[in-house]
Every structure is written in C-alpha cells, then in structure tokens.
Amino acid sequence: MTEEIQVDDNGKLKCSIEYTLNKVGGKWKLVILWHITFDGTQRYNELRRLLPGITHKMLSQQLKELEQEGLIIRTQYNEMPPKVEYSISERGLTLKPILEAMHEWGTVQGG
Amino acid sequence: MTEEIQVDDNGKLKCSIEYTLNKVGGKWKLVILWHITFDGTQRYNELRRLLPGITHKMLSQQLKELEQEGLIIRTQYNEMPPKVEYSISERGLTLKPILEAMHEWGTVQGG
DNA sequence: CCGGATCCTGCACGATACTG
DNA sequence: CAGTATCGTGCAGGATCCGG
C-alpha cells in the first residue's frame, strides 16, 4: 500500500487540516452541511430560509459542489411544481464531529 | 444575565457555526493554531517553515489577529537578535476538539 | 530576527434578470 | 419551485520594500 502524501501546487507538504479546508472551507459549506445534517433533509427554498444572507447563486453553487464531493445527496422529483430535496450522505455524516465541535465552540464562546 | 443572540449586519439570526467561522475562518488561522497547539510553542520563523506557502504579511497579520482574539500568546524577548515565541492560550485550547476533528477527517478522507 | 507599510491582483462572493 | 446566466465588486491574500 503506497503512502499518499498531500502536496500543494509547488510540491510542498500540506497538513491534513488544509485538505479539510479545501473541501469544506469558505463562507457557506459548513453552515449548509450543519443544517442538512441536524435539521434533516431540506428543500431548496427551505435552505434559503435557514441561511439568511445567502444569495441564489451561492446556494446553488455550493450545493452543486457539495454534491460533487459526495457529501450531500440531491433528489429531484419530476412534479409540477418542481421539488428538489437535499440530504446528507454517508460520507457527509463523517463530518459530524467537525460540525458538532464548531457549533459547540460558537455557542459557548459566542454566548 | 441577558441573552446574547448572534445577528448579522441586517439583524438576522446567525447559527453558532457562523460565529466560529468569523473567529477562525480563512485560509490560515486553523492551520496556524494546529501547529502551535500540537507542535508546541513556536518562534516566528519556525512557523514560516511549518507553513509552506504562507507569505510574510499573512503570517504576521494572522498571528496578530489570533493574539487579539486571545487565542494565542505572544512572548517577546528583548535580546539580540530578537526572539518572539507564540504559544497557545487557555481560550485557544478550547479549539482543540475542532482542530482534532478537522485533522482526523483530512487524514482519513485525504488518504 | 521579527515584523510594519504599501501597492496590487484575483477570485470569492454578490446583485439582478431570466428560464423550464 | 428551483435553478442558470451575466455582470460587478470588495476584500482576502500576495509581492516587495522599509525599519527596529
């Protein structure tokens, strides 16, 4: 079994936290994942309401990236009107410790 | 004791994770904290070596912000040549669960 | 050795209009 | 309802020089 070592564009060593930040960094991803994980499956417009301040573009963009990473699952119902649900995947569930830790810290430190 | 509720610029509710991201979000803060927490007290240039790719400006800027947040402690020795050490604070130690969770995830998922 | 000051660039993020 | 398309912009982040 070969050793997989994380490197950046210049071939320098990266620590594992940088890998994580690459996947779920940015302003919205962890917040989205938190809601889908703990509030359960959500529709598109439900997420918009849960995320005050997010724009149309950012929500759909972040959802698409999260789906491509296999962290959430997109389920489309071909009805009228359209209905799309986003749920957490098994891989996404492995982020739970991170979400819980960050939520706990924000709650305690933020008052 | 009054209830402290997190709100954004428009008075909308924020979830605790957003508070956390405000404090330790961005490209470098968590990585810096990880090294100072688990590799122990570090000098300025030692941190530069531990953080391949970080620029002079970003390192000093992030260190200053982390110190102002009370997450790390800056100790200056008035010698020649100058010597400055950065160590984790008690408040900074409360981030340990987050750091461990993100490092663990990056290690497992990143291979 | 440890930074601050300045100037600059690019991309994350946003506003808005349009569509099946 | 659940998105795309287009166009802007501000600030995170970077390069470089200066100073104690």
Outline the structure in words.
The structure is a homodimer of 111-residue chains. The first copy, chain A, has 111 residues and is α+β, with helices and mostly antiparallel strands. Chain A is 52% helix and 13% strand. The first copy, chain A, has 6 helices and 3 strands; from the N terminus they run ααβααββαα. Chain A has a 3-stranded antiparallel sheet. In chain A, a hairpin with a 5-residue loop joins strand 2 and strand 3. Chain A is globular, with a radius of gyration of 16 Å. The N and C termini of chain A lie far apart (47 Å). Chain A binds chain B through residues 4, 6, 8, 10, 12-21, 23, 25, 27, 30-31, 34-35, 52-53, 91, 94-95, 97-111, and chain B through 4, 6, 8, 10, 12-21, 23, 25, 27, 30-31, 34-35, 52-53, 91, 94-95, 97-111. The structure holds a DNA duplex (20 and 20 nucleotides). Chains A, B: InterPro entries: HTH_HxlR, WH-like_DNA-bd_sf, WH_DNA-bd_sf. Chains A, B: Residues 15-111 form the HTH hxlR-type domain. Chains A, B: It holds the Pfam family HxlR. Chains A, B: GO terms for molecular function: DNA binding.
Could you write a compact summary of the structure shown?
Chain A is an alpha+beta fold. The first copy, chain A, has helices spanning 16-24, 29-38, 44-50, 56-68, 90-93, 96-110; strands at 42-43, 72-77, 83-88.
Task: Label this structure with key terms.
globular, alpha+beta, Arc Repressor Mutant, subunit A, DNA-binding, three-stranded antiparallel sheet, 111 residues, homodimer
